[in-house]
Predict the 3D structure of the following.
Amino acid sequence: MWDKQLNDYVIEELAKVYIEYDKKGKSEKEFKIHNINEIVVDFEYAKKHDFSFSIDIPTMKQISQGNSGRCWIFAGLNFLREYAAKRNNIKEFDFSQSYIAFWDKAERSNFFLERVIETAAQPYDSYEVRTIFRYVIVDGGYWTNLKSLIKKYGLVPGEVMPETYQSANTEAMNNILNFYLRKRGIEIRNSFNEGASIDKLYEIKIEVLKSVYRFLCQCYSVPPTKFDFESEKNLTPNAFCNNMIGNALEEYIDVISLPFNKTPYNQPCIVSNSYIVIGTGNVRFLNMEFHKMKKLILKQLLDGETVFCSVDDSKMCIDELQIWDDKSFRYKELLGLEFEMNRKDYLESKAGSINHCILITGVNINGDGKPDRWRMKNTYDTDGLHNGYFTCSDTWFDNFVFGALINKKYLHNYLNVYGGEPNKFEIEEII
């Protein structure tokens, strides 16, 4: 007879398992006094990682995102500044991350307020309204979001709007914005329920946006409208952007490998309500089998071009060595636990998520003509062992890389389907 409870019999059986396990010398002592993640790492094996690569694309100095979740901005602008450097024969410069982050926060605030007005007649406990109030101001984003912000606001050089303490340490700023916006969002809903006109609701919205803009200027500084760059005078952000990257934003497609039934391969898909700039489209991907995406990444690297990439960086990372490698972790040997899982189960069970953006700058092709390690330009730990450049094993790459920005010239066979009707999924399914 089955017993749903953790009863005495089951507990005795569990105890037997540990007794047998402990006989093999798996002492509990070190687990009581050390971090598990330190215990399970095979540092001797990890230190043997080779940081040389048969394909190694030179890139400009790394810049840290600080204590913020702006990896998509940093990795995206890292990608674009390499494009701009080649186009304009510039050795070293940087785009302002703060400038993009400023307008990202402003647009997210506007997006939130607009959706509050749109759903004011719905009950607060509806899924849509709860979701709106749950995701207000966050740091994370996608390439599509970066693209829409750049197309609207342009770009500025790093020295024109440099980093501030708040831009690099966003937790307090985000908390304040979230608190204030949620408070005013409820005020809009209450005003609607009390019979306020649409004009009154938009009056409140503009009042809120004025306060948000003032606060953002305090945190980031005032975004420039004109500036000088080298010999060019009185440039606007949009003119500067056009000079530096031309039509680059339209030359690439965001490819992803999602094994969900609702997102068939070789078809476009979108994330519902994922746009930031109102009037632009939702985050859009071309979904394809992983092995196909991997071949395209290799092809782009072979042609001397870096690859903007989305990953789950939380797994199998040895931060002090700047390595991602599943083979360096002895979970099975020391803990008796196995973690192997196919990509579909991994995402659907929430065992992991797509949570970080980086730039792939190199790969090593072994004697068999296959990749065995990859070079990643990260957006944190820029002062570490390899100055912010990580390496990952090929098996880690296969398990934890999920998306890549691919030049259209490699996607001729897919361009006719990319513009078709997309399959939809929710943001919670991947992050």
User: Anything to note?
Assistant: The mean pLDDT is 93.
